[in-house]
Amino acid sequence: MNNTAIIASTDKGVELGLRIQKEFSKSVLVSTRLNNIESISSFLEKDFAKFDTLVFIGALGICVRSIAPYLTDKKQDPAVVNMDDHGTFVQSVVSGHVGGANELANKLANATGALPVITTSSDIQQLWALDTLAAQFNWKASSDLNQQISLFVNNKPTALLLDIKDKGTLYLEKSKPSFVDCYYDYQEIDFSRYSLFIAVTYKIYEAPIPSLYYYAPVLNIGMGCSRDIESDLLLESFTSRLAEQQLAVQSVKALGSIDVKYDEAAFIDLSKYLDIPFVTYTADELNSQTVLNPSEVVMSKLGVHSVSEASAMLLSGSKELLLEKQKISLSSGKKHTIAIAVDKQALRKAVVAIVGAGPGDAELISVKGKQLLEEADLILYAGSLVPLELTHYAKPGAIIRNSASMTLEEQISLMDDHYAKGHMIVRLQSGDPSIYGAIQEQMTIFDEKGMDYYIVPGISSFQAAAAYLKSEFTIPEVVQSIILTRGAGKTPLPENEKLNEMAKHKATMCIFLSATIAKSVQEQLLEHYEPETPVAVLYRVTWKDEEVYTGQLKDLAKIIRDNKLTLTTLVIVGAAIGARKNRSHLYSPEWKHTFRTGKEIKI
User: Fold this and answer.
1) Residues in CB range of 31: below 8 A, 6 or more apart
2) What is the dihedral of CA 517, 519, 520, 523, to 10 degrees?
3) Are residues 156 and 195 both part of a single domain?
4) I want to staple 503 with a disulfide (CB 3.0 to 4.6 A). Which of 9, 360, 367, 528 is the partner?
């Protein structure tokens, strides 16, 4: 089944349709002008339900009259947009949110230069589209949304509860309208102040005002059971346990048990009923977890201390249980155990983000890095290497400390204090943290202390150098490798990584931290590179006081000496600098692939 049908009613429309067709890998262009349909009405009568999207090119009236007999419900109708055949306007007609017609209209506008016409209230006001948030962030929404959407687009006071943390909740926090107040504890909400309640949760609430619940898939269920336990009784017991704990079935993400239960019919049936994966673990995997309620009986029978608790912990990646092991006896006499854990990443707990600040220009930090700076409770940055402007993204009340004068132990002590309070900590590193970032020693301590952390990459200075030099460092048939290295100063290099060894490859070489030993660097490189090999010396590239010098390898030491360059200086060596020869195959007319077949479409 094709995803998109492009329906043109004029010759001009066919020309525009051919342009649009290139933007959709699965699309069909139909028109009486192409003689591939008898009429638009006969085509739609037969094939309306086959397509996810319909793009009409022609008069809006033709579009509306053509689709009217086949429209049923916004949850089922395809996305329909209409363009005039000169490509001046593109209008979302049907299923703007759920079907994606609004998004499609904007995409077509970007591709053709047309002006998008969107009339849904939430889009005009730049509000959340409540009917598509669930699909956008892999949540499940409570069924009836009409009243809630009406209250929301009319800007009624809204309480937003965020019980979990994921990409969706971060988006809501960053983009919430002025009439929305954000909460992290249900008990703190004074419902008399609000007309609408929205929650992203895994819990069951009964709020006293109109409510909209988005259930995030974060609950991991660990279970053990008697052999051949009855499926219907297990399902009944399972749903009862969740109801008792006020946990939403819609938020169940996975079911886990020991591998000897891989064929347990009741577990298989339960996973199918919930449409979740059933995962089994070996005894060794289960025994790798330290559980709260080990069982000697289970150890004697299966060789493990725990099935339900250990399975829940393995599924969630968390050492904490939302529900410790419960033992349940069914009416048939069969028994089962159950334990529940929330996804570790969804928990609102302390975390350290090691963020790459980029090469120097504050605007070159990643979008994610900027967002984390805006959320952080503590920002610890290397002041000698990271621009102060980046700390201006911090929220009011955030603690900002320059680590330049601090020892590693002092930095860890400060992070420890904030971590204990459940704070978001950003360790802001220069460039990309993985390149001469001295993060290994920090991560070693984080691991020892059991602290959660992750890394957000940044743009390295060697990439900024390529941009400044307007150079591609990998040129077809000239050089296809980049070497990132440094000269041997106070810190020695491994024997097989010395510069003269690296120079044998004649790759594009990016040499960090070596300005003070420029003469030695030049001598070692000249053992294999030609004296006339292009070089570039970049001091604080992308900073406001950047200095860049180009020349030949034979003059490298002189360039650095004459300009008195020392710290934060990067040296680039290789034939790729400024090269403008040798075309790649990627966009060659002779190079055919999935998205460019070479076949011509004739009108």
Assistant:
1) 7, 8, 9, 13, 14, 17, 37
2) 160
3) yes
4) 528
Residue 289, in any domain of the structure = yes
Q: Are residues 452 and 537 in the same domain?
A: no
Q: 320-339 pLDDT, tens per residue?
A: 999 999 999 999 999 999 99
- CA 238-239-242 angle, to 5 degrees, is 90
Q: Is the confidence at residue 183, as pLDDT, over 50?
A: yes
Cα 122 from Cα 102, distance rounded (Å):
11
Q: How would you write 79-103 as a 3-class SS string?
A: EEEEECCCCCEEEEEECCCCCCHHH
Say yes or no: 287 and 339 in one domain. yes
Q: Rg of the chain's alpha carbons, rounded to an integer?
A: 31
- Are 447 and 496 in the same domain? no
Overall number of domains in the chain: 5
Residue finishing a domain among 290, 323, 346:
346
What is the number of other CB atoms lying within 10 angstroms of the CB of residue 464?
Answer: 22
Residue 582 covered by a domain: no
| Amino acid identity at 173 | E
Q: Are 451 and 481 contained in the same domain?
A: no
pLDDT tens digits, 406-429: 999 999 999 998 888 888 899 999
The parent domain of residue 250 ranges over 219-346
Spatial separation of the C-alpha atoms in residues 535 and 554, rounded to whole Å? 9
157 and 258 co-located in one domain: no
Task: Give domain status of residue 579, yes or no.
Answer: no
Check whether residue 312 and residue 364 sit in a common domain.
no
Do residues 520 and 539 lie in contact, with contact meaning Cβ atoms separated by under 8 Å? no
Q: Quick one: which of 514, 386, 509, 398 has its CA closest to 458? A: 386
pLDDT in tens, 277-314: 999 999 999 999 999 999 999 999 999 999 999 999 99
What are the Cα distances from residue 592, in Å, to 169, 587, 595, 599? 42, 9, 8, 10
Phi, psi angles (nearest 5°) of residue 461: -65, -25
Tens-place pLDDT, residues 355-412: 999 999 999 999 999 999 998 999 999 888 899 999 999 988 889 999 988 999 999 9
Q: If pLDDT is split at 50, 70 and 90, which confidence band does 171 have?
A: confident
In a 3-state reduction of DSSP, which class is residue 454? strand
CATH code at position 232:
3.30.420.180
